What we know:
Elements: E1 2-3, E2 9-11, H1 22-32, E3 39-42, H2 50-58, E4 61-64, H3 79-82, H4 86-96, H5 99-103, H6 109-125
Parallel strand pairs: 3-4
Antiparallel strand pairs: 1-2
Helix pairs in contact: 1-2
Amino acid sequence: MVAANDRTAVGFALSAGNAHDAPQGRNLLTMLGNAEPGSLLLMDRAYEDKKTRRLAFSLGYEPVVPPKRNRLKPWEYDKAIYKRRNEVERLFRRLKGFRRVFVRYDKLDVIFLSFITFALILDALRLC
Length: 128
């Protein structure tokens, strides 16, 4: 999922249960297209691989992600900005409040994606 803040999901997609999320994350970034140079992109450590960071830089984003501990050449990142990643985690927490999302009763991906969309709409309407 790509989110602008704790209330706004920009895009999301499902990945296979036995597949890594990074390739799907790169697809979502590609769908977003180019950004204004210097736009920050807060990412989880699961997305800190070279391909994802290279794609983020090429699209105009500045990735803010800590390097894994076993990196030979770790990079510097803004720890204060990275702490704001919890805003996106709050969006996930509210989505998991819907039992149907948390447990995933639906067998078909299209039904599950539809209910996630419905849950995001309900969450947005709660603000009104």
